[in-house]
Amino acid sequence: MDQPPDAALPFGARARHRRAVETEILSVARRHLAETGAAALSLRAVARDMGLAPSALYRYVENRDELLTRLIVAAFDAAATEVERAESRIDPDDLPGRWRAMAHALRAWALAHPHEYALVYGSPVPGYHAPGELTTPSGTRVIARLMALYADAAAAGARPRLAPLAPDARAAVVRALLGDASQEPTTFDPDLVLAGATAWMLLLGTISQEVFGHAGNLGSAAEPLFDASIAQAWAIVTGEN
Question: Distances from the Cα of 61 to the Cαs of 36, 44, 55, 163, 178, in angstroms?
């Protein structure tokens, strides 16, 4: 039986070699993501560009879906790290400053990595179903950071500004967003949940319009428009004009 190419190495060296190969796999896969798109991602093509036989690559990645999952987790983590780093530079009491820092960090990451942004926040990949147990921890890091900010704003007296919504529709939306946690009113303020979700969708929508070129050639107007959008989103959360 063939052994993996690192099988004869000492344990520490073998682990380092495996990490290096896995890092290269993701690097080559990202290039293919940019060139051909997620739907056309192929382990055989990745192996060819790495100078490996497909059978050798399968020792590190089981199939295309596993490779997509790794790319998704890495993208979520990269975006979240930038968002967390940006917020950490702001005075914790400067709530709007924290919001602006996180929003701009996510936009900057998306513009620098449009194909990875599209993978995690764009159209689903046909035939692929993300395993939630693997993608959710990374995929909710930014949202968790934002929810902590929204909670700080509520503690400081902010009152979300929401359009009237029928009670049954309001309850249905909160249940959809929170699942079983929607039954814990002392933990989750429904208005805060709705306002936070609205602000998040406005943030992602504004970024997506720019990343995917749907807003036209904005040029120097892109950043002022983004600032106006996130200011409106923050006003929804806080009720401020």
Answer: 19, 11, 10, 48, 33
Sign of CA pseudo-dihedral 98, 101, 104, 108: negative
From residue 37, give the alpha-carbon distance in Å to each of 4, 78, 138, 143, 222: 29, 19, 22, 26, 26
Any idea which of 8-17, 77-86, 98-107, 154-163 has the lowest mean pLDDT? 8-17
User: CA 234 to CA 153: how far, in whole Å?
Assistant: 10
> Going from the N-terminus, what domains does the chain have, and what CATH number goes with each?
11-62 (1.10.10), 65-238 (1.10.357.10)
Q: What is the mean pLDDT of the chain?
A: 87
> Residue 39, SS3?
helix
Structure tokens given for 152: 């700080």
CA distances from 66 to 28, 47, 51, 116, 236 (A): 15, 15, 20, 16, 39
